Amino acid sequence: MSDRDVERVQSREQFAATLRRVADAVERGESFRIQVAEQRFTVPADAELSVEHEVSGDREELELQFRWTR
């Protein structure tokens, strides 16, 4: 697979539902499937979890990240 960096903008309701589903899987120690920009993939249960806060000028960003090796 080639390099990729995409994001999916969601409504508040969709975003909250995605967070709940992901949080439930993380809490149970299970993998989960998700689709971003027409590509569906599995995030493994042992993925590294991190929270990132970025500041650039007046703009701030919060990212919840899952990192794993294929």
Question: Would you kindly provide a written description of the structure presented here, covering whatever features stand out?
Answer:
The chain is of the alpha+beta class and 70 residues long. It has one domain (12-67). The chain is 24% helix and 40% strand. The strands form two sheets. The chain has a two-stranded antiparallel sheet. It has a two-stranded antiparallel ribbon with strand order 3-4. The longest helix has 17 residues, at 12-28.
Question: Which helices and strands, and how do they pair?
Answer:
Blueprint: H1 12-28, E1 32-36, E2 39-43, E3 48-56, E4 59-67
Antiparallel strand pairs: 1-2, 3-4
Keywords:
70 residues; alpha+beta; two-stranded antiparallel sheet; 1 helix; 4 strands; globular
Structural class, judged by helices and strands?
A: alpha+beta
Radius of gyration: 13 Å
Q: How much helix is in the residues?
A: 10-25%
The low-pLDDT segments are none
Strand content: 35-45%
Number of domains: 1
In short:
This protein is 24% helix and 40% strand.
